[in-house]
Design goal:
Elements: E1 2-5, E2 8-11, E3 20-22, H1 24-32, H2 37-42, E4 46-48, H3 53-60
Antiparallel strand pairs: 1-2, 3-4
Length: about 70
């Protein structure tokens, strides 16, 4: 679980069941901003074990800009 104490985030290990399951490719897509987790859920790439958690994570990964690479390969 994540807790905030004195402006500092603290993360502790838990034995609780996962709220969401996904592979590293789906996580990378969401982290880099190319695809939302809610879209990946509809494609069966993300499994939601606790209702509402995929939508909440999708919002958490949103950035202010779409992914863009100005380099030409």
């Amino acid at each position: 679980p994540l807790t905030v104490k004195g402006g500092e985030a603290l993360v502790t290990r838990t034995e609780d069941s996962a709220d969401v399951s996904l592979d590293v490719a789906a996580l990378g897509s969401a982290y880099l901003g190319g695809v939302r987790l809610s879209v990946l859920r509809r494609a069966h790439r993300v499994v939601e074990h606790t209702p509402g958690h995929v939508d909440a994570l999708s919002l958490a990964f949103l950035g202010t800009h779409e992914p863009h690479c100005p380099e030409v390969f």
